Structures are given as C-alpha cells and as structure tokens.
Automatic annotation (TrEMBL):
Swiss-Prot/TrEMBL keywords: Cell cycle, Cell division, Chromosome partition, Cytoplasm
GO BP terms, alphabetized: cell division; chromosome separation
InterPro entries named in the record: ScpB_csome_segregation, WH-like_DNA-bd_sf, WH_DNA-bd_sf
Protein's organism: Sulfurirhabdus autotrophica
Alphabetized NCBIfam families for the sequence: SMC-Scp complex subunit ScpB
Pfam family, one: SMC_ScpB
Record keyword Nuclease present: no
Protein name: Segregation and condensation protein B
Length: 189
C-alpha cells in the first residue's frame, strides 16, 4: 500500500505527463489497492490546493482532471510559439453558442434563431474542431441532423458540464454571449 504522499506524487506525475484529461476511474487504475471515489476526490482537491499560486493549475473539466497553464500566463507561452491560432468568424461563434445553449438543434433551428442561412462550412469547421457532433435526427420529413456540443467543447471551454455556461440573461442575449462567454480561439484551448 502506498502512503498518501506517494499517491499524490503519482497522481501529480501522471497528470503532468498526460496530454488529455484523466477521469477519476482512469486515475484509480494506477494503484493496485482500491481507493474510494471520496479518497481520490479528496487527494485531487489537496493536489489542486498545493498548486495554488503557481504558473499552472489542476482543473476538473468534463472528461477529467488535467494540469493547464493559468490564463494570465498564456501570453508568455504565445511568445515562444508566435504562430497565431485560428480565429473563428462571428457566424461560427454564433452558431456554436446557439448549439451550446439550445442543443440538440437542427440547422433549420440555428437558421431560425440567427435569421440567416448557416453555411456548410460553418458546421464543418465546428465538427472538425471537435466541438459539435450529430447526435441523432429529428423525426420529421427529411430527418434533419440534430447537433450538440461534445466533451471536447466542454474541456476546451474549461467546463465540467453545460450547466456551467454563463446565463444568457447575464450578458444580454445570445449574440453578445458569443463575444463575452464563448469567444475562444484554438490556441487558448
């Protein structure tokens, strides 16, 4: 049996080395002996606290736990990698916001809310980014695809669930929401 300090060091090592978030159940597989969910959660919270005030932080996102750079230090990383991340058009961001808040939605639903036609390229760019996916088809003539956000969307937005999205009324509507709450470029994700 590992002592608690060693368990935390193992968790820290694995999380720092991992390129993807790791769920509690994945982390529990690291140990021969059974750790309760409560013990694992407590150790992860202690580890998060130990990293307070550092350049990186331990966060819990939709698909698990990960270390990430604190946002206020991102500009320094950008200096090492001056490559500009892709910027998304207003149409892409509005479409993403509508899908995030109204999911599952069809392309027709999005067009009705936006008041303009949604181009295939807008949907394709969100699918390629891994932020939306087809989750079914509406049971009407033509069986249009239903779109919803993915776990990658939640991870990239640093959310554990859709309930953590900012409330639309707080920022004045869905168009402003795309600029205030969901404006994110791939380099920040």
């Amino acid at each position: 049996m590992h002592n608690i300090d060693e368990v935390k060091l193992i968790l820290e090592t694995v999380l720092l080395a991992s390129q993807e978030p790791l769920s509690q159940s994945e982390l529990k597989k690291l140990f021969d002996e059974e750790l309760s969910n409560e013990t694992m959660r407590k150790l992860l919270e202690e580890l998060r606290h130990e990293w307070t005030g550092r350049g990186v932080e331990l966060v819990n996102v939709a698909s698990g736990w990960r270390f990430q750079t604190r946002p206020k230090y991102q500009k320094y990383l950008d200096r090492l990698n001056p490559e500009k991340p892709p910027k998304y058009s207003r149409a892409v961001m509005e479409t993403l916001a509508i899908i995030a808040y109204k999911q599952p939605v069809t392309r027709g639903d999005i067009e009705e809310i936006r008041g303009v036609v949604v181009s295939t390229q807008v949907i394709k760019s969100l699918e390629e980014r891994g932020w939306i996916d087809v989750v079914g088809h509406r049971d009407v003539i033509g069986r249009p695809a239903l779109y919803a956000t993915t776990q990658s969307f939640l991870d990239d937005m640093n959310l554990r669930s859709l309930q953590e999205l900012p409330v639309i009324e707080e920022v004045g509507g869905i168009n402003e929401q795309t600029e205030l709450g969901l404006q994110l470029t791939a380099g920040q994700a």
